[in-house]
Amino acid sequence: MFQGPSSLSLDAKGRLSVPTRHRDVLLATASGQLTMTKHPHGCLMIFPRPEWEQFRERIAALPMSAQWWKRIFLGNAMDAEMDGTGRVLIAPELRQAAGISKEAVLLGMGSYFELWDKATYEAQEAQAMQAEMPDVFRDFSF
Questions:
Q1: At the fourth CATH level, which superfamily is domain 2-131?
Q2: pLDDT tens across 44-57, in order?
């Protein structure tokens, strides 16, 4: 399970250094192989390859009425591999789609990560914190 935020800076080539606390797990469970794709909320989803394969199968099985979502998730997916120093290249097309230029936030979301432009994430998080909690939290105990 991946969890927690990490503030990161992409280098001039568009690479990010995977935080050490995630690096060893990614090497052990996915040999450092990752797949990235667009997320409908404007960030990127980064999956260890085995988790991506399960997600891909679920998306591929969706009916024709979800064809555009299949295109968004599957058609924009790109494979990447961590290098020897734990860096991974974020493809220019995906960086542009998520508006990520330099400063980013990597969020552990359980079986995958979200990669956000830092300013976009902070603005959307602040907006969410000001809004009412969704009904699914009505009976949730904190």
A1: Transcriptional regulator MraZ domain (3.40.1550.20)
A2: 999 999 999 999 99
